[in-house]
Structure formats: C-alpha cells, structure tokens
Write a structure and sequence with these properties.
This protein is mainly α and 204 residues long. It contains ten helices and no strands.
Length: 204
Amino acid sequence: MGRKSLKETRRLEIVKVFYKVAKKEGLENTSIAKIAKVMDINPSLIIHYFKTKEKLTYALIDYILEKYLLIYKIRKGNNAPSQQMLVTVVNDLFSRKWNKLFDDGLFYSCYALTFREKKVKGMYKKLTDTLREQLTALIEECNEKQMIRVRSPRMTADLIFALIDGGYFYLSVSENAKTFDEKITNYKLEALRLLGIENADGVF
C-alpha cells in the first residue's frame, strides 16, 4: 500500500509540473525533457511512470476532471440538499473561482485533441457528462423535497452548462474585467431563472 501511495504521489507531482510548464510554454511545446529540467530529475524517471507524453497528457486530462469536480465539494459531509446549496453551486459555477480552476489556454489545447484522438474525446465526454450528472442529481433532490419545481432536471442542467461553456469561451477573449463580471452575473441570473429561483441570497 505504501509503495502505491508513493507512486501516485509522484505521478501527481509530475502532472502538476506538466500543467505549470504547459501553461507557460503551450501544450505542443512542452516535452518530457522540459518537465524533467524543471523538476531537476532525469527524464527516464518520468518515462518510468508514464511511458510516453501521450499517456502523460491523458493523466493531465484526468487532473482537469478532478479539478472541475471540486465545484461540488460543498456537498461532502452534508447529505441534505437545500435550495441554498443549489444556489451556492450555481454561484460558484458562474464565478472566477470556477474560471480559474484550470487555465483556459491549456484546457482548449487539450480539447483540440478530441478531434484527433478517440480516447481524449471519450475523456472529455466523461468530464462533461459527470459535471452535468452532478448538477442534475442536486436539482432532482431539491425537486423531490419541493424546494424548487423544475420540469426536466437533466435538460435544465444541460442548458445551464451551455450558458457556462458558451459564456466562458466568449469571455475568454475579453480583457475587460468589468465586462466579464457584468456578463457572467447576467448568465448566472439566467441560470437561476431556469431553476425558478428569484432574488436568491448570496448570488453576488
């Protein structure tokens, strides 16, 4: 068990450095040699854990999934859903907290691989499906407790993420912080309207 734990710790350390280097240099320009240089280790050690840059990239995408799922961390240790919990999740989804979970440039560089690699496409589908399933489940639970009345939780979750994905892609080209804040707040209010929640506390 100890060896496995040490192995996973070392793998995660390598992935995190890969993320930092790729964020600065770009995914295409990041090599195992560059990662090893930053870590001050022999490249053979990285190859020992990941064999190829391709497999290292897969590990990076898994890391993305784990980072994005942190948005639902509020639910841990609390099995009783509430409208406030739903509002908090939506509030976090439409915030700089969510936007900064992972670098946009690196995210879209990895996303571009979905058009060339079937495995990467499957990994991104898993990521998007998991995020939607988590939100759908929370909406359904709030529905069952009659805290909200949403006719189609799954469709509503899909529409909310359409707002998120489209909104952040559009705003990623904007360098105006004020415009970003104004528009992301409008998208957030629209998401709450889809849930039938008006004038929610803690929205701003």
